[in-house]
Amino acid sequence: GQQVMQIPQYQHVQEGEDFTTYCNSSTTLSNIQWYKQRPGGHPVFLIQLVKSGEVKKQKRLTFQFGEAKKNSSLHITATQTTDVGTYFCAGIQGAQKLVFGQGTRLTINP
Amino acid sequence: NAGVTQTPKFQVLKTGQSMTLQCAQDMNHEYMSWYRQDPGMGLRLIHYSVGAGITDQGEVPNGYNVSRSTTEDFPLRLLSAAPSQTSVYFCASSYGPSLYTGELFFGEGSRLTVL
Fold it and tell me: What is the pLDDT of residue B98?
């Protein structure tokens, strides 16, 4: 079945530094979703990318969908302590299953 | 709207015991699902439902049962708990029935420990 891999598994940065997490799929994705989970919390939807090569921005967060629709990335510019958490990408399988990557846990030194 | 409500938030079981994790949503969502989250494993789909009376298996269904008698409720039953089922369980819903129509809304989670 479809596998979604995320790297890195962990990332520690100084506040103000940039952060990027990468998501790769073994198959072509129709679309990809990104979620954020704060420590001790539940996943919260951030964004969905649908088009090949699509780039979307949410304030300091930039999301990209690869041209071949097999990879995606999330880049955070100038991290803040509120960015702490685990970021997950997820691809839809068969219209009714969302397959999650392992997540990237971001910690920040203030 | 309360969104997705899960109960209980914490539960400790002994091996072999059975229990039910409750999930209810008040958003009239057609799609509901259960995930388990283990360290380093991300979120893995257990079972899902695209409407009342319709359920299907996800990636890790063994040891779990579900039913969907109403649009609002989607309970997850552990038939005979095993230590390997120690995990955090999340219920999630979507407008559905296809996930192309929108994102998942997650409950706050239920932390289960099996001794």
Answer: 83
